[in-house]
Fold these 2 entries.
Entry 1:
Amino acid sequence: MTSWRYKLDSQLYGTCSGLDLGSGVLLWKDAQQPIAYFDSIKFRSYCDESRPVYSSFRKTENSFEYLDEIAADWAIFMSDKNENGQYKYSIYAITLSFTANFVITLFLTVIVFVAIRKKPYKGASNLLKLGSTLASVNLTIFVVKALKSLRDNHMDRGVVSTENVLRLLWNDLTFTSIDFIVVLICELCQVQIIMRLFSRVQEKRMIFFIGMLLSIISQILWAIPTFSQSVHYSYMGLQYDGEGLTLLSPFVYLFRISLAASYASIICSHIFTKRHLCFQDKHMIILTLVTCVIVLLQPGFFVADVANIWIDDLSEIFNTTCYVGSTVIVWEWVDHVLILERKMQAQSVLGRPIYEDEQQDYYFANYALRVQEAISSNEDDDAPESPVQTNFNYKKETVSNAQNNKVEFNEPQRMKDVVLEKCSNILDGMLYFTDHFIVKGLMIKTLSLHSRSSDDRKKSKTKVRRRIGLERPNEVYVYAMKDVVFDSDEEQENPNMETREDVESV
Amino acid sequence: MATFTSLLACVLVGIAVVFQIFSVISAPVVSTIALCTYNGNRFGVFGWCNIQAQQCTPIRVGYELDSYDYMILNDFLPSNAKMSVSKLLIVHPISLVFTFILWILTLIISFHRLGNSRKMLIGMVLWSLPAVLLSLLSFLVDILLFVPQLAWPGWLLLVSTILIAVASSIICVMRRTVSLRKYERLRNNENIEMYPIHLNKDSKLPGGASADQRSNPKESTVISSSHLEEPELSYRFEIDSRS
């Protein structure tokens, strides 16, 4: 549990330590001696975690009144100074919270499977589906376990304790492990969302590296105190440095809040910059408002948490829901915004903007060369080589000749060169990974307009095939060109003017 | 030379540095400045001062009480946090160092030709990220420890975070501008000429223009325009649609 937030519980209840009732007669169910007189009777009320337990069963006219001392303890327990006695800390509020979170997460998972398009971000959408499914499964397991724990408590002890549910939330290894994976997946999807918001390749790269790094660091830092505590709770024999980890927990907590606040500010700034798209119609206005609320929910919970410790108790469940919500809803919002943007670009004269980053890395030049290579490989061997191809071959030959002419010695490389080479290899590898699997693939895919349904896609495909003549590949057309002279008034002025016109096919 | 945007970034980060200095020099360094005043104590990053006794603790990381009186311990900080959490206040000087270095870098790009270096600007954007995060973290630590009694130096950290974030965005825009400018300059130096695609079939050179045309592109455009033919593809489409 987040012990760094709790002060020591100073309240001592008299009924839990024992009340001196003095002398008197006691009745009990012993058949031999149902009545006995005692000089000194000491009464200790039933307590749970050093707090008095009161009956929540149905009260009838025949029920006994509480003793004055017990009633006084109840008044203390319910007072404003006590942070555990108020209604919001009772089992009812906690049960309501975790079941509501469970339903919301389940609802979001259904949205992911129904509404989120698979293409063009196939990998990321699959990751999102995996994350939301895992979150739903995790909360289902938790709800079942919590209800079972409440039932057991009720049956065995006649108590419905909040402590057991909260302990389950913080110390259950299954919940903690799946939650770790869920949050990591959601954070990675959030990185993907931010990458989608930026158009330039270099910025995408930077966001990918930094986002990955921060997500992994945040999760590792979170895992250290959480798993230590869970393992210590599950296997009591293991050593546990509680004091040392006390400092790490609040740091990770604040670090996560910082990341969530940064994410929220990026999304909000994009909402502001693309406000003409976000507030275009009623549907988009609602989606944008929901997005705005959901990304601000986690920083908002921090403020509520600072003001009210109750949130902190359930922060893990709120966290899971917030992460899944701020990924799924925002993903949907980004999808809509990008579709609207692309539609607008398609309708405009200039089309999609091309940035110098793309030109600097010769993305289009490379693409053109590949097309050229593909075309030339299909051509006959007898056909004369294109100049571009010749140039290309010449370059290759030059390189190979240079390599052949080089005299090689078995000299050991300098340490500095080896380290530099290794570093540059690692960097190149990472860049290759980013460009090929993350950025470049997505870039090329996003060049085309999205279509909502498969029918639309089929229609557009047929249209394109018809346009480029793939529909009837066996039909051969022969064209002839001739100059046609029109008789007009201008002709008299300029009799030599000729105009070309196409002629019919054969 | 200094541009308006680089100067603006420099000024914003400079103000952020000043705001962060206020919190770092709070009690016990300067006893009158405090992040929070509560129960007769003025709290700062490196300790606290008692107002009545006019005594301050030695400068150290985290708060420590000499006497472990339960009542004092229970009512020492205005929030629910434990005393050990006060060690997190160390992020204040770390944040100041990061922001100060960022300020130095903004000064360099304002008054040095390094302001036109893309690598330098990318480095600055990357550096500004931990600066923003640490500044935000400092503010959150203050909130966690001292809310609802947080004083003005604590709130200045929020302003500082926003200022650094804005400066970071400005640097990012500068990087885009410099990148575009360099690209345009590079293209101008290469003097690449654009020729219509349909000239390819008549030309013998890879660029699609003859040697004469290459030597004098302006002339060549004029000459080649006289041999213009309409694209073949349009004929095909016309015929196809008719059939």
Entry 2:
Amino acid sequence: MALTMTETVRVPRPVHIHRLRSALSVLVALATSGLIAFSILRIVAYAYRQGNGLEIAVVAALFALLSAYVVLLGARAVALSARAGRAVEIHHARELGAQASLRSWNALAWSCALLIATGLAWLLVLNDAAVSRTFFDLALIRNSSGEILSAFTTNIVIFAVSVVLILVWALVIAIARTLPGDAGRPLRLMATAYCDLFRGLPSVITIYLIGFGLPLTNLPLVSALSSSTYAIIALTLTYGAYTSEIYRAGIEGVHHSLIAAARSLGFSHAMTLRHVVIPIALRNIVPPLMNDCISLQKDTALVSVIGTIDAFNQSKIIAANNFNLSAVTTVAILFVAITIPQARLVDRLTQRAQRRRRAGGA
Amino acid sequence: MALLEIDDITKHYGTHQVLSGLSLSVNEHEVVCLIGPSGCGKSSLLRCINRLEETSSGEIRVHGERITGEGVDLDRLRRDIGIVFQAYNLFPHMTVLRNTILAPMTLLGQSCAEATDRAMALLERVGLAHKAHDYPDRLSGGQQQRVAIVRALMMNPMLLLLDEITSALDPELVAEVLDLVRDLAAGGMTMILATHEMGFAREVSDRVCFLYQGQVHEEGTPAEIFGAPRQEKTRAFLRDLVKAGRL
């Protein structure tokens, strides 16, 4: 065996210097910066005529800088590739070739991104800046923000109350759905039917039916509530169904050996749920629960269909008065702004949960 | 009267027969080891005794009282019969101390101070008092298994079932767990062990049962079983162990 090993002849593999790749990257980079230069000239000239040249000039300068960087990257790739071709030592040549390739890919990726950004910029200024005027009238955004912010508190209140109700209600449903044995069947079936119904029903329809339907029933207590309260009831019913599924997944995800351990000590089903299953399940389902929260937060805008003056409805009124949608953009910005930190938090929690799982903890 | 009497029990999962007419009786302060090839029904037998699993037929009695079938308060029964699992199964969201005091506090009505005192004394005895406030994932397998034993002892069980408690442990950690079991045996605890540690079974048990195809194929003192097995299957099993260097 050792003999045949020594007899095999090692043929050195060829060295890739990526000449074509770097040439392509520099060409694409040059084409991109040409297009950007052309766009800058046209757009800045237009903005100057409109009288808001300064902001545009700053953006234009940023684009110009970036395109110069991309050309530089491409040029560097070509230079590295050429050096790789001249290199004597094979490992050195490979190293330079690899660097040339990396720079080429970087230049290509940046060119691509810049081209897309330039396209978007054109979208904003085409047709006498129709898009910008319709959606991004800065003056209107500034003027409407006060009113919209105060209407946004309605969304926040609806969200805050619903989220508490949902977390409790969904747990009740989830426990009902996991009741054991024959005696548990009736409630189990009821809970399942509830989940099927409200998961299938679009939330906007639930809100509509409850918001307009309950007042018509003339029932005591439930027919004379505020529209925000109807919205809370409807959202709780809809999200309760979804969230109970998350809880259930968490409950069913608790390893049966832990349940066996609790039962073997003499804990009843209910005590096992309370002391072992639910605490462990809760720890595992925080990320999906947070996702649900974000989704609920956005769906508070649906309450506008029953006439609650939330941020969205308020902005629609302003939009109608000014014949311009920029006030709605303000609401959009608000929603996005409060969602982003939560989305990052979910990412973080998910990562942590994954690390814990990989470390072997339950 | 024997503490535990198992009378002709059977157990099957679908068509697969795990226990087929097994009988066994265990006296107070007796240590019984169950040995046999995997799949012979050792674990199933233990899990049937505290009714984590149901027998298909036959009867099990504790102090002469039937515990199989309907009308038995399982939660009550399980307080008196402790079990320790192969995979420790400590509650991962509680500290070691909390793992051990939860059951006596909620089920036996002990006060927190009372349960904590007892738990700390036991943890001290197994050399883990300094880990009382750590979470299980900070402990080695051997340490977790010792905590699991303490958790079972906290309920003052009259019978302790040990289900291959060293099978998941790294070899160097086996001794610390077996030492503890040896202590318990010396203290008069009634135990049934399913085990692959033949040397230990030989040393600690009063009686060894060789299980084969869901029945007690041969039983006797350790000297009889390991020294002069009468049944061919027992001899074959022990021969295989010797070949594998485990005996």
